[in-house]
Amino acid sequence: MATLIEMASEIVSAHVSANQMSTEELLAEIQKVHAALKSLEAGQTVEGGAFEAKPALTIKQAFRKDEVICMICGKGGFKTLTRHLNQAHELKPGQYRKQFNIPSSQSLTAKNYSEARRQSALDRGLGDNLAKARKVRAENIAAAKAPAKAAKPAKAIKAVKEEKPAKPAKATTVVRKAAAKAK
Fold first, then answer.
1. Angle of helix 111-123 relative to helix 126-145, nearest 10 degrees?
2. What is the pLDDT of residues 47-93, one digit of tens each?
3. What CATH number should be reported for the domain whose range is 56-144?
């Protein structure tokens, strides 16, 4: 693991590569970054302010008609956000909602995508199939709760007729037993 000084120098060198700084500004920047890293390592807040993840944009901006934009990284173009949250940020939808105070009524999908899926389900009759399945299930549950009917007498008589009588003993066995008694 890199030391704080190495991390601070990397951060400042990246900053300097994009911005020109004087020698005094460079030294001040290194000291400032090092102090910030040191306080973060100790578990303290930087400059007395609380460290809190702020969304890159508002909820209204994030959930558009044709796309959803991640409020953590600002990446957009998603139809649904769940997979991105899991792969890029290792978050579950519930954690994401809690982090940014997104109501549970807000879908994490683009509005047009949700509407297209709903219309597809209606066209295929999935709502009707679900209603039929629920009705059949309710009838099965009601039938299971009803008292079981007694077996019909015809079935009881048939069961008695089907019973096979015991097999008669073989003749050789009878002869052996008689011979054994005679001795």
1. 60
2. 544 445 556 688 888 999 999 999 888 888 999 999 999 999 899 99
3. 1.10.10.1550
Residue 93 CA to residue 77 CA, distance in Å, equals 18
- DSSP class of residue 71? T
Q: Tokens for 183?
A: 């001795």
106 contacts: CB under 8 Å, gap ≥ 6: 59, 63, 97
Measured distance between the N- and C-terminal CA atoms of the chain, rounded to whole angstroms: 101
Task: Give the residue from 79, 74, 77 showing the smallest Cα distance to 58.
Answer: 74
What phi and psi values does residue 78 have, to the nearest 5 degrees? Answer: -90, 145
- Closest listed residue to residue 159, CA positions, set 151, 167, 149: 151
Query: In the numeric block, which tokens belong to residue 55?
Result: 């969304």
CA distance 5 to 15: 15
Is this prediction's pTM over 0.90? no
The 10s digit of each residue's pLDDT in 128-160 is: 888 999 999 999 999 998 875 544 555 555 555
